[in-house]
Every structure is written in structure tokens, then in C-alpha cells.
Design goal:
The chain has about 250 residues and is α/β, with parallel strands linked by helices. It is built from 10 helices and 10 strands. The chain is globular, with a radius of gyration of 18 Å. The protein binds adenosine-5'-triphosphate. Adenosine-5'-triphosphate binds next to strand 2 and helix 1. It holds the Pfam family ABC_tran. Keywords: Amino-acid transport, ATP-binding, Nucleotide-binding, Transport. One of its GO terms (biological process) is L-amino acid transport.
């Protein structure tokens, strides 16, 4: 059976402040049911790519000046982020962005704001999120600002799940977290992918971990895709080993 392409980014160029060319023609596909990794070092353009997709560049004075972005075959470039959420695409930003003064549970409930299917379903989904993240259930009444970095990352993913997304754009989930927590979070991402059918586009500097959990990877360097392939192949590629996995 043919795999459906959910997200199709075709040759996009992004310019900040009308002069700084940051993405120089990036193309990538996110298939339904996959975990697709967007890899590359600091400043390669991963965050910019995700923000271009979810239309979050404007507040940074950034603009897509070339190329196209389609979701399920429809152009989404001019949608605002809330409309994109309605279509099933949500971004979890780097640095977590939970509301510090709200409790974990209140944070999760803010993720359901675009839903129109009633309180009962929202309550069911809260239980679903707590099923995947038992730590959040334990900390449900704590102010998010007082929880750990790992719990805040879980809260951010949990909140995204409350919108019942088809695709999550996940920016650097490993950032600042101890290796064991990174494993735990990636394990949950994998479960969500396999059991709930959520598709992921995952931006990561941690190539090693990302390629163990993803199905396919794109490697960005200075705003260009320099290599892409099945995760298993990239893991065995000599250049990837030398430059990104620290082995040679
Ligand atoms: P990181 O892991 O640091 O987020 P990244 O691969 O996600 O890296 P981007 O954040 O997309 O990279 O940044 C790509 C380039 O664009 C960098 O050179 C950065 O300095 C530049 N850049 C990012 N945001 C802006 C902005 N608002 N204005 C001007 N330049 C920017």
C-alpha cells in the first residue's frame, strides 16, 4: 500500500529582517504514521523550518519568500497557527513554553481550547495523556513553574496532545535534559506514534537518539538539506557516523 504524504515542504526559502537568508531551498516530506527527524547542528535552520510550517515566523520578522508548504495536499502557508491546529498540526516549541503560573492540569486543559466536541471527550483525553505520562498525573496540581525540566517538556507534549493532533512538530525535545529522561520522552513519542497513530516531525541536535527512534531523517546544514534517508541507513553512513554521531 502507498504511504500518504501528510506534510510536503517544497523548496522553501526563508529570509529574516528582509535580508538574512536562512533557509536556502529546503524540501522534505512527512508521511502519515512516521517519525521524521530533522537533524543538524546549532543554527542549521531546524527551528526556522518548523516555524515556517506552522506560520510562526512573522513575530520574528521572518518570511517564506519562495517555495510551498502543503498539508494533505492543501496549501497551508497563509493559515494562522490556530487554523493549522484545526487541521491537525501542532507545534511544541523549543524551550517547552508551559504557563508557569498554571498547574500542570490547567496547562493540559489549555491545549483543548480549539476543540468543539464537549467536556466528556476532553476529560477522556486528559486520562489518555496521564496514561502516557504518569508523572504528569502525579504532578497535576503543581504549578508548572515549579516542576522539573523533564516534566515541563512532558507537559508541553501533553498539552499538544489535548488538541487531538494528527501531526506534531516537536522542536528539540532533548534540550537540557539528562540522558535517562531523553530516553523516557523519546520512548513515549514512539508509543504515541505506534498506538495513537500520531505522525511526528522532530527537530533534534541529538542525532544519535533521534536516529534510533525515527524512521527517516533529513540532515540540514546552513539552511540546506545535505542528506536524507532511512534512519537505519543514516546510522550506518560513514559521514553521518563521523560528523554527527562522533564515531569514526
Ligand atoms: P537551534 O538548535 O539553535 O535552534 P536551528 O537549527 O533550529 O538551531 P535556527 O534557530 O532555525 O537554527 O536558526 C538558523 C539561523 O537563522 C541561525 O543562523 C540564526 O542565527 C538565524 N536566525 C534565527 N532566528 C532569527 C531571527 N529572528 N532574526 C535573524 N536571524 C535569525
Amino acid at each position: 500500500a502507498q504511504v500518504e504524504t501528510l506534510l510536503e515542504v517544497n523548496n522553501i526559502e526563508v529570509i529574516y529582517n528582509s535580508v538574512i537568508l536562512v533557509l536556502k531551498g529546503v524540501s522534505l516530506n512527512v508521511p502519515r504514521g512516521g517519525i521524521t527527524a530533522l537533524l543538524g547542528g546549532n543554527g542549521a535552520g531546524k527551528t526556522t523550518t518548523l516555524k515556517a510550517i506552522s506560520n510562526l515566523l512573522k513575530s520574528e520578522r521572518g518570511e517564506v519568500t519562495k517555495g510551498s508548504i502543503a498539508y494533505r495536499g492543501e496549501r497551508v502557508q497563509d493559515l494562522n497557527p490556530a487554523d493549522l491546529v484545526q487541521r491537525g498540526v501542532i507545534q511544541v516549541m523549543e524551550g517547552r513554553h508551559c504557563f508557569e503560573h498554571l498547574t500542570i492540569e490547567e496547562n493540559l486543559l489549555t491545549g483543548a481550547y480549539t476543540r468543539r466536541d464537549g467536556k466528556r471527550k476532553v476529560a477522556d483525553d486528559l486520562e489518555l495523556v496521564y496514561g502516557y505520562f504518569p508523572r504528569l498525573k502525579e504532578r497535576r496540581g503543581s504549578q508548572a513553574g515549579y516542576t522539573s525540566g523533564g516534566e515541563q517538556q512532558m507537559c508541553a507534549i501533553g498539552r499538544a496532545l489535548m488538541s487531538r493532533p494528527e501531526t506534531i512538530l516537536l522542536d528539540e525535545p532533548s534540550m537540557g535534559l539528562a540522558p535517562q529522561l531523553v530516553e523516557e520522552i523519546f520512548g513515549i513519542v514512539k508509543d504515541l506514534n505506534e498506538r495513537e497513530g500520531v505522525s511526528f516531525l522532530l527537530a533534534e541536535q541529538n542525532t544519535n537518539v533521534a536516529l534510533r527512534f525515527a524512521h527517516y531523517g533529513y540532515i540540514l546544514e546552513s539552511g540546506r538539506v545535505v542528506m536524507d534517508g532511512a534512519a537505519a541507513d543514516l546510522r550506518e553512513n560513514p559521514d553521518v557516523k563521523e560528523f554527527y554521531l562522533g564515531m569514526s
